[in-house]
């Protein structure tokens, strides 16, 4: 079978999977479509946005939504819709990189501690327990206050924050896979530890990993918006949904309510769609949930 044929078969199976999701889990399927639209707008924001993210026009200050400006303008004449799109671009970068880092960290900690167990597992899990006792927002504020705001810092901080906490979920799935007969059969046939982990443990925890990644994307976007709202996120003039809520959205919301409604609605719709898509993925990939 050629590589092109294999890729075509994988693409067809992926489309069939999402068609089945739309039929069996319509809310999750619609959430997936909104999620895909969000990715598209974030990746191609520079081409889709009708105006520059910081392009000002003092003749059009605080204009209500119209055909020229779909979401109105802010207090210095910038197009809100264009800034929403560029904020989505930043959310795509931070959300996917931080969620990817968190997922990798969760896999490393969860698989190793769950498979080997012992004293190392006990020590690492006690550290995870202590880590999870602190409120996420408090940890974020403390660390960002120390290292300073910035895109790279926020990605690393959010990745470590959610990666350590998410290792508990991967560990539980790894323990369940470790006790299955096929894992014991591979060990009894002399398979190396690396072989067992790569060919038996990881493939069977991948459904959990996929769902964990999708939920982490929404959590990271929400956390970054919270930091930006508090003034600890990406420094201006780069637009983020949190800074749009904190800046003109909070100051001029009585004069121009669209300044707060637009980023707030975008944040709500995106995070909700990602969460319901992750729930639908869990139900579709988990054999115990398919009958419901």
Please provide a brief summary of the model.
The protein has 292 residues and is mainly α. Helix content is 75%, strand content 0%.
3D architecture notes:
With 292 residues, the protein is mainly α. Helix content is 75%, strand content 0%. It has helices at residues 3-24, 26-43, 45-48, 80-116, 118-133, 136-147, 151-178, 181-188, 193-229, 241-246, 248-251, 258-285. Helix 4 packs parallel to helix 7, helix 8 crosses helix 9 and helix 9 (193-229) packs antiparallel against helix 12 (258-285). The two termini are 37 Å apart. Residues 1-6 have low confidence and may be disordered.
Break the fold down into its secondary structure elements and pairings.
Elements: H1 3-24, H2 26-43, H3 45-48, H4 80-116, H5 118-133, H6 136-147, H7 151-178, H8 181-188, H9 193-229, H10 241-246, H11 248-251, H12 258-285
Helix pairs in contact: 1-2, 2-4, 2-12, 4-5, 4-7, 4-9, 5-7, 6-7, 7-9, 8-9, 9-12
